[in-house]
Amino acid sequence: MSQHHFLPASSILLTSLLLSACGSDDQADSLPVYESINASALTPLNYSDFISTDLDGDKDIDLVQCGYDPVGSTSRTQIYINNEGTFELLSTPLDSNNNGEGDTALPGLNYECALDFADMDNDGDIDIVGTGAGGVAPDYGVFTYLFENQGDLTFTTKTQWVRNSIGELSDLPGTNQGFVTFADINNDKYFEIMLSASTDQNNLSKLFLNNTDGTFSVIENPVDGTSVLLNKNNGTHAWGDFNNDQYQDLIIIGGQSDASIHLYKNNQDNTFSKIDNPVNGSTEFPGLFTGPISWGDIDGDHDLDILISATYSVSYDADTLIYENLGRDNSFNFSLVENPVDTNDDGTGDSAFTEHGLSEMFLADIDGKNQLDIILVGTNNNNSEHTTSIYLNTGDKSYQKIQNPVDSNGDEIGDTDFELVSYAGATVADLDNDGDNELIYNGINHPNTVTAIYENINGNTFVKVSEPAQ
Question: How far apart (Å, rounded) are the C-alpha atoms in residues 259 and 251?
């Protein structure tokens, strides 16, 4: 079961960019609109992740994927540059000789790998972090890679990024079934790194401070003077400013051995304080584990709410839950939104979610109404069923599922469902600069491995674009 990759550290930035792109005719008109999207160069991968961002500074969206390629049993990390809607693989983006020229493919990551992006070194271009299993037989292992963007479609990396108290350098810990994010926790425009993972030796949740000199240091006691962030198994986390003080706060889900959800307020000094009993000021979040979590303003009241899709530790059932932020009085209170799904089209929620994006979950504006919609991709509950679903925000904290969203015969009317996948990696982005967001994902549709891009044609109807042969 894939477990994460849901607009991680850069989620709030990316979501705001997506919203502004969808909501601003001036911005959309400033970029050339690409008449078609061609994904034929993309490699079908599973146990995967996708991220979407502008890597080459040309103001359109490029793609990065990692995962397992069953053809040749290969781990891959690959960059695809958007060239007027056609995605072209950068075959040798890594400058391994530090001579200013790309000469090598990026080292591959697989088995529920995770990616994130940010301008980590404040030099004006987007860098990449990735974690997961990888390597080549017989030297399989676990890795975390930082790829520093040189601004000319080449990237450099090094083996030692982390400085200890006596100045010695070591590598970032590698992870298996890991999760990684960037976040600028102290507003110095240099991004920190957070790892939540199982490693080859133990479990960890570690926060690495960016020293602004090309190195990082472990923040040893990040919460209330303790190392409470540690040993969160293979859980996940998300960053967002839930109390509107302009500093990134943290929510983290444990793994199976620590089925819990904890909320941490940023103290603005590279430390955090745990918020006890954040649900209605009286209870903790439910005991869920190993699932995606996202921040987003679902109700338009200018504070960040919480979306969770995760698994209960006892029953192994999954749940998708929305918690509304009630903290306008700085009380840090969240309340469960009861029955957010509108099943009878009357504009009022009457049902709980029955689908769960245990591989991927996103909040993004799909229909151009400047409201955050919900996208779920992956395994649906603890069984063999899967889901690829979009729920449109209809206001008043209610959502309607798009039924048959895919136009299969060219009449711009949806008549079929999205292709279902497990062990998925996914992202949403405006790939053709027309002001709406496409859906992009990898995964397994047994016995095939699938890469699919669905072009958004009117906010609730999509067309599957060209793709690699299966």
Answer: 13
In terms of residues, how long is the chain? 470
pLDDT of 108 above 60 = yes
Which of 340, 389, 228, 362 has its CA nearest to residue 293? 362
Question: What is the amino acid identity at position 198?
Answer: S
Residues 6+ apart with CB under 8 A from 372: 15, 19, 296, 297, 298, 363, 364, 365, 393
What's the average model confidence in pLDDT over 269-282?
94
Tens of pLDDT, residue by residue over 29-74, are 578 899 999 999 999 999 999 999 999 999 999 999 999 999 888 8
Q: How confident is the model at residue 367 (pLDDT cuts 50, 70, 90)?
A: very high
Exposure pattern of 311-344 as b/e (b: 16+ CB <10 Å)? Answer: bbbeeeebbbbbbbbbbeeeebbbeebeebbbee
CA distance 391 to 341: 8
Structure-token match 């990390």, residue found: 77
In the numeric block, the tokens 């980590």 are attached to 120
| Beta-strand relationship, 155-156 and 162-163 | unpaired
Enclosing H/E stretch for 28:
helix 25-29
Query: Tokens at residue 298, please?
Result: 């679902």
CA distance 76 to 66: 5
**Of the candidates 341, 423, 361, the residue with the CA atom closest to the CA atom of residue 386:** 423
Strands (E), 127-175: 127-134, 141-149, 155-156, 162-163, 169-170
pLDDT tens for 136-193 read 766 778 899 999 999 999 999 988 999 998 889 999 988 888 899 999 999 999 999 9
The CA–CA distances, whole Å, from 251 to 242, 261, 304, 378 equal: 10, 7, 12, 22
Interstrand relation of 109-118 and 127-134 (parallel, antiparallel or unpaired): antiparallel
CB 28 within 8 A of CB 435: yes
Longest dimension (CA), the chain: 66
Average pLDDT, the chain: 88
What are the distances in angstroms from CA 339 to CA 104, 284, 350? 51, 20, 5
